[in-house]
Every structure is written in C-alpha cells, then in structure tokens.
Amino acid sequence: MNQVLDLFRLDGKVAVVTGASSGLGAGFALALAQAGADVVLAARRVDRLRDTEKQVAETGRRALTVAADVSDPEQCEAVAEQAVAALGRIDILVNNAGVGTAIPALREPPGEFRRVIDVNLNGAYWAAQACARRMEPGSSIVNIASVLGLIKSYAPQAAYAASKAGLIGLTRDLSQQWSGRRGIRVNAIAPGYFASEMTAEIPEDQLLTFVRQTSTLGRLGVQHELDAAVVFLASPASSYITGTTLAVDGGMSGH
Ligand code: NAP
C-alpha cells in the first residue's frame, strides 16, 4: 500500500461542484469522482450537467444533478439540502461557477458589473454558507479564483478582477472563521489561462501571445494540471493548509 497517495483519496466523501456543466468545472467533477467521491453537479444548464453526470457515472461513483443559479442564496441552500437528502453529507465544495467579462470601465453599465460580482463573488459566498452549515470537521472548500485576482489583465476586466480578488479575500476570512472552530478548511486556486468556453471568447492569437510573454512556462495550462490541485486541496493531503491561494498559472503571477 502506498500511504502518501492514500492521503489524496476521497472514498466515501461527497463533493459539490458549482459550474459543473462545462469547462473546468466538468473536469473537476470527473477528477473528484476518479479520486473516490460522489459528486453533486450544480449549474443552470441541466442538459449539459447530464453530460457530466454520465461521465461521473462511468467512474462508478454516484452523481446528482441540481439546477441552480448560484447568485440566488435560496437556490444555493436548495443544492446543499438536496445533496444531503440524496447522498447523506457534504465534505467538499468546489466554488467554480463563474462568468467572464471585458468592458472598458467608463462604458460598463452598473448591471453588468453587478452580474459578474453576483455570480463570481456573492454566489461563492452563498454556496459556502449553505454547504458549511452542513459540513462536519475534516471538510474542505476550494474557491476557483483567477490569476487576475493577483495580477493585472491585458484586457479591461474591472468586474472580473474585482470579483476574483474579492474571492481571495473571502477565502482568507472564511478560513479564519471556520477552520479552527469548525474544522472546515477554506482555500483558493488562482488558475492562469486554460481552454474553456470562457477563454474561447478571447481571440486565440491574442491569448497565446499574452501567455507566451507573461508566463514562465509560456503555454496555456491543461485541465489535469488544475484537477490535481483541486484534488490536493479537497483531500487530507492538504490537511495543514488553509486560507491560502495556490497559483496554478505557469509562473504568470511570479513575474
Ligand atoms: P466556462 O466553461 O464558461 O464555465 C463556467 C461555468 O459556470 C459553467 O458551468 C456555467 O454553467 C457556470 N455558471 C455561470 N454562471 C452561473 C450561475 N449564475 N449559476 C450557476 N452556474 C453558473 O468557463 P471556465 O473557464 O470553465 O470557468 C470556470 C471557473 O474557472 C470560473 O470561475 C472562471 O472564472 C475560472 N477561471 C477560468 C480560467 C480559464 O482560463 N478558463 C482561468 C482562471 C479562472 P451554466 O451556464 O450552465 O450555469
């Protein structure tokens, strides 16, 4: 038996993944299932969640699809309630749901700024509250922030950058409130640039040039490089880590 690898196993645990209908979130749900967890899949597009559900089922783990808009606290509460009703517990929350935007600040309408903060920051808080109310000691929350919460963007992204910097601050505070007292660790991941529906909106040559010029590794990240970080922070392998933000960005924020 390989004891250190056993620390990464998630057998018998239940993970909630928001934004599991596409991109990175669908990958995280599959990775958590491969590590042994049953997974609750939350997002707005149920047809796309069903695709993720099928992939999770192929690992032999259970999957539960719940339609939810994370910007609504009551819908986050319903996700947590249904997770416990169907799968018995919540050990892991991956706050991954997010929207991107790039509008020059002098032209950005209030509604657009609010929409991004509402999903990326407020939504993560509502989901964390709903899940933490039901979590036992030993649980873990992983917030998917962004390198743009740490360093400047090449595009006008006030709302996105503010939401992700806010999520890093939220991570620090929830960690200090919940880790010692309730045994719930709270950490964040700051991804660099990965292929997804969100980054598909950026012209490819522009994106590759930017990544080549600003990151040490000079390339986009690959899904499994983030999956490993999510499983690490979700699992007992990171039991002495809380309140931190792990940059998975090819060295971009280290410049
Ligand atoms: P994506 O493919 O566009 O996925 C975004 C996910 O968020 C979708 O599943 C979407 O599902 C969900 N979502 C959006 N609004 C929602 C809402 N109101 N309620 C519930 N779910 C909602 O983009 P992605 O790149 O995988 O992004 C995933 C996360 O990684 C985001 O937080 C993003 O900011 C972060 N990130 C991505 C990169 C990158 O390079 N790709 C880099 C840094 C950080 P529905 O539309 O079905 O609701």
TrEMBL record:
<dbReference type="InterPro" id="IPR002347">
    <property type="entry name" value="SDR_fam"/>
</dbReference>
<protein>
    <submittedName>
        <fullName>SDR family oxidoreductase</fullName>
    </submittedName>
</protein>
<keyword id="KW-0560">Oxidoreductase</keyword>
<dbReference type="Pfam" id="PF13561">
    <property type="entry name" value="adh_short_C2"/>
</dbReference>
<dbReference type="GO" id="GO:0016616">
    <property type="term" value="F:oxidoreductase activity, acting on the CH-OH group of donors, NAD or NADP as acceptor"/>
</dbReference>
<dbReference type="InterPro" id="IPR057326">
    <property type="entry name" value="KR_dom"/>
</dbReference>
<dbReference type="InterPro" id="IPR020904">
    <property type="entry name" value="Sc_DH/Rdtase_CS"/>
</dbReference>
<dbReference type="InterPro" id="IPR036291">
    <property type="entry name" value="NAD(P)-bd_dom_sf"/>
</dbReference>
<feature type="domain" description="Ketoreductase">
    <location>
        <begin position="13"/>
        <end position="192"/>
    </location>
</feature>
<dbReference type="GO" id="GO:0006633">
    <property type="term" value="P:fatty acid biosynthetic process"/>
</dbReference>
<dbReference type="GO" id="GO:0048038">
    <property type="term" value="F:quinone binding"/>
</dbReference>
<comment type="similarity">
    <text>Belongs to the short-chain dehydrogenases/reductases (SDR) family.</text>
</comment>
